[in-house]
Specification:
Helices cover 62% and strands 8% of the residues. By secondary structure, the chain is α+β, with helices and mostly antiparallel strands. A 4-stranded mixed sheet has the order 3-2-5-6, with helices on both faces. Strands 1-4 form a two-stranded antiparallel sheet. The N and C termini lie far apart (67 Å).
Length: 341
């Protein structure tokens, strides 16, 4: 069992980008399985089935290969008729299949491009699901909502794997029943049904509910339910994370700034949004961003000057103001010295 899986993927992304700058970073696909979540969900919606997602590093994690052999056995496959299977293999061998070479035939080049597209989709999924080890198996609904992370040791025989899956089937049925409730009734009834799913989902997997989050926001534009602030915050965090994944720091800043302007957020929530905008700029920009960093910190402090985190915001604001003053003084001294020369 290979631990710290996602950290290894991030490292792999950096290292491989130095070698193959034009290629996405992660590999995907198992023969006989759908190669990415989008295609798996499309099939699941047509057949009204759940989705099992297998994350492996075959050939690098010794348990991944043996575990997938068990999953592909007739003994297991004969009991998986109610599920669509998605295979995401993040091994170096799978990654190499995404490299387009001039010496390859047009057919092989096209296959490599398709593998790269699948890999890119799966890497985004990995960023959202954040697996800690391989092999890992996740159960999702046909709508793409997280149900469970099957409890596995990695060395299960066929009977052990099926037992783990059976143990979580009731969770799948319960979530399907909740999903049905989101499709009937008045707008606020639907919002209440969405909130039931939202609260039943572990916080780290709520990003997969983004379509329900957006639906709730559109159904309750006047916030009659009183729930909109948490949905706006969830949407903002999702948008910011996708921007981070796409190396778009400016987009992440805008997501937080726009959230701070939402009327349904509390003063403390607006404060946090402006603070996050400043923090992203600190992490991603040079000294030319100092004025905007200071502006966002000022807005953050002004939003809730007596909050529990206000002292921390002020501490940061004072630091950057002092830093800017020193930079300005150094620049003025340099200009004066240049003038004398």
């Amino acid at each position: 069992m290979k631990k710290n899986f996602f950290k290894a993927l991030v490292k792999s992304l950096f290292m491989s980008s130095l070698v193959f700058a034009a290629a996405p970073a992660f590999a995907s696909g198992n023969e006989g399985f759908y190669p990415d979540l989008d295609s798996g969900l499309a099939a699941a919606k047509k057949s009204d089935k759940g989705v099992l997602i297998f994350i492996t590093q075959q050939g690098e994690d010794e348990l991944s290969s043996s575990f997938m052999e068990t999953v592909k056995s007739d003994e297991v496959q004969n009991q998986l008729g109610d599920y669509v299977l998605v295979g995401m293999d993040f091994s170096q061998a799978a990654f190499e299949k995404t490299v387009v070479r001039d010496i390859d035939t047009p057919e092989n080049q096209q296959a490599a491009k398709k593998a790269a597209e699948d890999m890119q989709k799966n890497s985004r999924f990995a960023a959202l699901i954040n697996p800690e080890f391989t092999p890992a198996v996740y159960l999702f609904t046909a709508e793409g909502y997280y149900v469970s992370h099957l409890v596995l040791k990695g060395d299960e025989n066929a009977e052990g794997f099926i037992a783990a899956l059976k143990a979580d089937e009731y969770k799948h049925k319960a979530l399907r029943d909740m999903i049905a409730k989101t499709k009937t009734g008045k707008p606020l009834d639907k919002v209440a049904a969405i909130d039931e799913i939202f609260e039943a989902t572990q916080p780290e997997y709520r990003f997969f509910l983004i379509d329900l989050v957006n639906t709730a926001i559109s159904l309750d534009k006047k916030n009659k339910s009183g729930l909109m602030s948490k949905y706006i915050i969830t949407r903002t965090e999702y948008d910011a994370m996708i921007c981070f994944y796409d190396n778009n720091a400016a987009g992440a800043v805008n997501a937080y700034v726009n959230a701070a302007k939402e009327k349904f957020l509390s003063a403390e929530e607006k404060q946090q949004a402006y603070y996050m905008a400043a923090l992203v700029m600190v992490k991603s920009s040079g000294q030319e961003s100092l004025p905007m960093i200071i502006t966002y910190l000022e807005k953050s402090l002004a939003a809730a000057p007596n909050s529990a985190v206000a002292p921390k915001v002020k501490e940061n604001l004072d630091y950057f103001k002092d830093y800017q003053a020193k930079m300005n003084a150094a620049g003025a001294a340099g200009a004066q010295a240049g003038g004398k020369n």
